[in-house]
Design goal:
Strand order of the largest sheet: 1-2-4-5-6-7-8-9
Mean pLDDT: 93
CATH superfamily of the largest domain: Aldolase class I
Distance between the termini: 17 Å
Largest sheet: 8 strands, parallel, barrel
Structural class: alpha/beta
Order of helices and strands: EHEEHHEHEHHEHEHEHEHHHHHH
Strand content: 5-15%
CATH topology of the largest domain: TIM Barrel
CATH class of the largest domain: Alpha Beta
Helix content: 40-55%
CATH architecture of the largest domain: Alpha-Beta Barrel
Amino acid sequence: MILAPLAGVADAAFRLMAKRFGAALVYTEMISAEGVLRGNPGTRELLDFAPEERPIGVQLFGSDPISMGSACKKVNQIKPELIDLNCGCPVRKVVGKNGGAALLKDLNLLEKMLSAMVASAESPVTVKTRSGWDKDRLVAVEVARMAQDCGAAAVTVHPRTQRDGFSNRADWEVIAQVKQSVNIPVIGSGDVFSPQDVKDMLDRTGCDAVMIGRGSFGNPWIFSRTNHFLKHGQLPPEPSIRERIETCLAHVELSTKRHGEKFGVIRMRKHMAWYTSGMPKARELRQQLFSLETLRQVQQVFHRYLVEIQGASELAPDGGR
């Protein structure tokens, strides 16, 4: 199981949690090639990772082949296991600069960018793509073949179009079509929220691995539970409320070590919302958590919460998501 390159989510603390729970590979957040070349401080932070996060891939986006090749040369210095080209991001601020999924409208440019990256990167190059720009321009198979011809080591397919965003159902048949069309490894992505989803995707598409994105939000157990399910054929129980809180606290601690006390806790607010989703009195709990600025305060609020709901502490969580 692979952790997706989740912009605004998959920082070092999140990646470490995924690794602790059994993710085989993690990717950085999406990183601008131009930011790499300018030495932007925020970009340098995105490129910083701990040895415990390996194997790790660095995902780049951009719209200029020369810049992408030069950025790869810069990234070579930190020796990631993989360098990934993003041609799947659907957000306006990225596609508006001809990056991300916008490349699916200009496959000649995409080919030049891939060739430049493969020529410059000392690590294997991978590609993450969507089905296409819209339902009338479905190009995933063509992109995968191009990636293979350019020397890419693997391709990840998220089978929605740019116009879909994250709405509609991911069409896993597209992943199967790509798998049948190339010899390089194919990684499936999209609508994977449980161990059963992972197995279904592997069985139905024949893909070589599965990338998990939104299904990991507040749910690092998806990696450990899936690994157990695939190995033994038995589905482990959902984590208890106490386990969810203890794991959330471990995540908060990693975040404060990485970003400092106040900012580390503030960055964790969306994660704490995900960890506590479905718990009894979750709304009241989140209202308290979202006003806090220190790790100690978070620990105290969670402790009081556990004492308050002790009689219900063994209730199964709602979906583990």
